[in-house]
Amino acid sequence: MAYDPDGEERLRTTPTGTAPPSGPAQPSPPPRPGLSYAAPAPIAVAPPVPGAVRLARALWLLSFVAGLTVLVGSFLSRDGHLERLRSVVDGMAPGGDAEAVSTASGIVFWGSVGALLLVILLEAALLGAVLARHNWARWALVPLLAVHAVATLLATAFLMPEGDSANYVMLLWGAQLLLTLVGLVLLFLPASNAWLKSRRTVRR
Predict the structure, then answer these.
(1) Burial bucket for residue 88 (CB in 10 Å: 0-12, 13-18, 19+)
(2) Rounded-to-integer distance, Cα 200 and Cα 202, Å
């Protein structure tokens, strides 16, 4: 403050006529954000997987293990299978060329192994689609399971080993088909049906 000669105090002004700041300059506050009337994006919440679906998944996985066990065993003992198939092919067409018989035996053996492996891979892919809540996938498993049963029946004539090993192969194939059938039925239970058909709930 400044004082006049007569003793009265007056406010000191700058040459422009404005009062100088009394302290250090303060930064101006940031501008306020504008009001938004848009609703926040919903957060998708997936419903919990019911017990029937979890059990079906476990049964299908066990069936894959059983089927792959047979295929791995057939691959490891392929020499015995091919020798047996040569006898079968030669009996069906006696007097054939040895090379042609070997080729036909190889085609039958590897074709049977490939067909069963392809079915298992397709079933695994469809099971993954079911677990991703695609309702159509469980319906696609119905005809595929029928194809699997037919392929297994045909493979018994080509991949069935001799001796006591045949009993184990039949046991594994039977367990595989039974597990897949029960697992498929579980996917059509009311709890599984509601889980597959329900829409995702949202939380705001």
Answers:
(1) middle
(2) 6
Question: For strand 43-45 and strand 9-10, is the pairing parallel, antiparallel, or unpaired?
Answer: unpaired
- Structure tokens that stand for 115 in this block: 């067909």
Distance from chain centroid for Cα 3: 87
Rg (CA), the chain: 39
pTM for this entry: 0.73
φ, ψ at 19 (rounded to 5°):
-75, 135
* Residue range 20-46, pLDDT digits in tens: 555 555 667 777 665 655 555 555 566
Q: How far apart are CA 115 and CA 59, in angstroms?
A: 21
At residue 53, what is the residue type? Answer: V
Partnered with residue 2 across adjacent β-strands are 10
Whether 57 contacts 127, CB under 8 Å: yes
Residue type, 63: S
- Residues 65/68/73/79 CA torsion (nearest 10 deg): 180
Segment (H or E) for 203: strand 201-203
- Ranges under pLDDT 70 in the chain: 1-27, 32-46, 93-96, 199-204
